[in-house]
Amino acid sequence: MKKKKKRKVKRGEEWPEKKAQKEGDEEDKWGVKRRDRKGERHQQGNAYWLSAVMLAILVLCGAGGPVRHEPTESLAGVPSGEEEVASDLLSASKVWDSIIGATKQHKQEFEDEFKTNVEYNFLEYYKISSLPAGCRPNSNLSMEACLQKLAQGLHTYLVLIKHVEKEFPGSLILLETRYQSSFLINLFKEKMRHPERVSVLNKSQEESMLKELDNPNTFHRKMTAHSILRQLHMFLVDGKRAVIKREIRRGSMTNSNTVHSSVSINK
Length: 267
Prior knowledge:
- By secondary structure, this protein is mostly helical.
- The chain contains eight helices and no strands.
- The chain has helices at 16-64, 81-87, 94-114, 143-167, 172-191, 203-213, 218-249, 256-262.
- The longest helix has 49 residues, at 16-64.
């Protein structure tokens, strides 16, 4: 057999085996890097597809199920959605609570003044012909007619309060009642289709009404003043109930339980 001749390696030249091994190592090195980069892109692509699929599933599931609105806490001074809806109802106005709360305090003041000498129910015997008619909850009046009666009645009570102020000057109840009554009258008119139909007493009628209430007997004048405040409270309570009933009838609320749970009446 002939012996293979060994190839001479020139100075500075590497052995073929070592060169091939080095080149192979470099190829393997670059090949790994390229594969790693492809793997990263492949993983990122899978993540994007997975996110898209999950989002599509959530959308499809949500389309078939009921949408739930979670209650959110509103910032101070910023009403939430429920409050905005409720504020459109006349019965939900806080003016009602303010004025009814003020007139409600009259009973306690009356009992503090007379102690046990005179019962609060004794005021039922004091009949005042000039008291205005209100809107009863069980009446057949429309909302328009009901609001007209309430607005006109409050105007009349503002005149009658002048007699009460003579007997109880500086009363905080009267100050609050007079202040809130003006706001409530404006609310009534805003909800009316024809607010111009609300009639008020002229100066001559006011003087005549106050003159009828005057009496030389001090006790009688005081009892008349107390009776006016008591009747005003009942006028407001009945008026609010009447408005609530008509709001339910007109479909302003989904059911009566929602109305009575969101709107309270202080008796």
